[in-house]
């Protein structure tokens, strides 16, 4: 078995994510995984992040199926109603990708 979300592996964002989120929010997901989640709990190969409006700023809300650990991380970036409500981080063992919900279903 491989270690999920190893920061040394290739990381990507889907075309749908790149076209709907600014780069700093995409980067923030990787930072949250590396700095806030790794080592705290065992991570599955699919992680869920909700993007919430917190008084005009983004709160990234993490949850993982089968885990009681949930976490909201307030970010200093402006929120837009054009942002997707949810994104996933997916690790297939060789590369990691941030995807929209409709893109994860295609895998």
Automatic annotation (TrEMBL):
Recorded superkingdom: Bacteria
Pfam families in the record: DUF960
Protein name listed in UniProt: GTP cyclohydrolase
């Amino acid at each position: 078995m491989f270690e999920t979300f190893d920061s040394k592996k290739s990381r990507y964002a889907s075309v749908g994510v790149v076209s709907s989120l600014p780069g700093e929010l995409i980067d923030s997901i990787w930072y949250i995984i590396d700095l806030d989640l790794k080592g705290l709990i065992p991570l599955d190969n699919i992680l869920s992040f909700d993007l919430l409006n917190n008084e005009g700023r983004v709160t990234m809300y993490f949850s993982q199926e089968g885990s009681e650990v949930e976490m909201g991380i307030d970010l200093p970036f402006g929120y837009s109603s054009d942002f997707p409500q949810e994104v996933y981080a997916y690790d297939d063992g060789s590369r990691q990708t941030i995807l929209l919900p409709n893109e994860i279903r295609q895998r």
